[in-house]
From TrEMBL:
Keyword Chloroplast carried by entry: no
Pathways per UniProt: Glycan biosynthesis; glycogen biosynthesis
TM spans (from-to): none
Class of enzymatic activity (EC top level): transferase
The protein's name in its UniProt record: Glucose-1-phosphate adenylyltransferase
Residues the record lists as binding alpha-D-glucose 1-phosphate: Y102, G167, E182, K183, S193
Protein family: Belongs to the bacterial/plant glucose-1-phosphate adenylyltransferase family.
SUPFAM superfamilies attached to this UniProt entry: Nucleotide-diphospho-sugar transferases (SSF53448), Trimeric LpxA-like enzymes (SSF51161)
Protein EC: 2.7.7.27
Catalyzed chemical reaction(s): alpha-D-glucose 1-phosphate + ATP + H(+) = ADP-alpha-D-glucose + diphosphate
Glucose-1-phosphate adenylyltransferase/Bifunctional protein GlmU-like C-terminal hexapeptide domain span: 292-364
Length: 395
């Protein structure tokens, strides 16, 4: 089969276990976790690719892939159901009698060199499947070409106190990178890597092969491949991104990212002009019923819901029911949850397909300045009548 040459191919790393999301990822890959009422986390990088004119994407799956594979399907919701390009799911596979999982981010791309070679690309963009943001990758690609870079790394400015949590790029005035520090104890700058990389394919292929042949390597981009490229004198540049971006790898960051959608001037605005929209696989559902007696303020209510209770500063996902007398505040309710009468939910995340029975109390309120402890109920759980789940408790 002949494949058309592509200027740039995207490789989307979506195989992470997401253990820090605990019960929310027991049976679901992190990129498939619901977000913002009607989306999944993976919708954001996929939509960014389409909006940036990148139509050839490999999605590298590994942990609990079934739901994610079914969700992506043939890529139609993102207009990626095309002949000889589009989106393709790439799980680990046996090339010989020895079968192995992806050993690290670099090894995952190494195992799929043949997929990339089909399209003979000039450049490859590496993305993560667990970040929430809107970004024009085409602008980053133009910068990459303008600087004649071998590797361009998207960075964002973080507070100095938080810089030790990230890979830090130390740069010259022209943006060229002279030093890369992986989670340094004493960071020299606040240019934090976003885990978004554009490589010249010829350069990346060379270093992937060398990395795979090194028995001491952890097969990781940040720890191994990027330092190796830098040490050999190749041209690396930092591309500064100033928009909203959040790694939703923890319970608190997932909750915060959902809350960032709310308010008159939200920190992250989902609404955008054509060409900047987030696309998703949405199943046909009727319009929501919002009863006259319900009291709702500053919330998202997706389609297919029946709302009779009181919703304040919360996200209510598709197919949910909130009975009369129930109260939901500062919370994220994932799809197909039934909240019965008399239930009180505050500062919580409720997983998909749960039933919260009458009189249950989940979470609680906090004094100003007090640490927010987010209560979590895992997927498809039933909370019995009058059960109390304390702030910060994981059920």
């Amino acid at each position: 089969m002949n494949f058309q040459k592509k200027h740039c191919v995207a490789m989307l790393l979506a195989g992470g276990q997401g253990s820090r999301l605990m019960v929310l990822t027991e049976n679901t890959a992190k990129p498939a976790v619901p977000f913002a009422g009607k989306y999944r986390i993976i919708d954001f990088p996929l939509s960014n690719c389409v909006n940036s004119g990148i139509d050839t994407i490999g999605v590298l799956t590994q942990y609990q892939p079934l739901e994610l594979n079914e969700y992506i399907g043939n890529g139609q919701p993102w207009r990626l159901n095309r002949s000889h390009c589009g989106v393709q799911v790439l799980p680990p596979y046996a090339k010989s009698k020895k079968s192995e999982w992806y050993k690290g981010t670099a090894n995952a791309i190494y195992q799929n060199i043949a997929f990339i070679e089909r399209y003979d690309p000039d450049d490859v963009i590496i993305l993560s499947g667990d970040h929430i943001y809107k970004m024009d990758y085409a602008a980053m690609l133009r910068y990459h070409e303008q600087m004649e870079a071998d590797c361009t790394i998207a960075v964002r400015t973080v507070p100095l106190a938080e810089a030790s949590r990230f890979g830090i790029m130390n740069t010259r005035e022209d943006g060229s990178i002279y030093e890369f520090e992986e989670k340094p104890k004493h960071p020299k700058s606040t240019n934090a890597s976003m885990g978004i990389y554009i490589f010249k394919w010829s350069v990346l292929k060379k270093f992937l092969i060398e990395d795979e042949e090194n028995p001491r390597s952890e097969n990781d981009f940040g720890k191994n491949v990027i330092p190796a490229i830098l040490n050999e004198g190749y041209r690396l540049f930092a591309y500064e991104f100033q928009g909203y971006w959040k790694d939703v790898g923890t319970i608190s960051s997932l909750w915060e990212a959902n809350m960032d959608l709310l308010g008159k001037n939200p920190a992250f605005n989902l609404y955008g002009e054509k060409g900047n929209r987030i696309y998703a696989r949405n199943y046909a559902m009727p319009s929501s019923i919002i009863a006259r007696e319900s009291k709702n303020k500053n919330c998202f209510i997706a389609e297919g819901c029946e709302i009779y209770g009181t919703i304040t500063h919360s996200i209510i996902s598709t197919g949910c029911t909130v009975d009369s007398g129930a109260i939901v505040e500062d919370s994220v309710i994932m799809p197909n949850v039934h909240i019965e009468s008399g239930v009180i939910i505050r500062h919580a995340i409720i997983g998909e397909d749960c039933r919260i029975c009458r009189g249950a109390v989940i979470g609680g309120s906090f004094a100003p300045g007090e640490e927010k402890k987010i209560s979590v109920v895992g997927k498809a759980k039933t909370i019995a009548e009058n059960t109390a789940i304390k702030p910060g408790e994981i059920y």
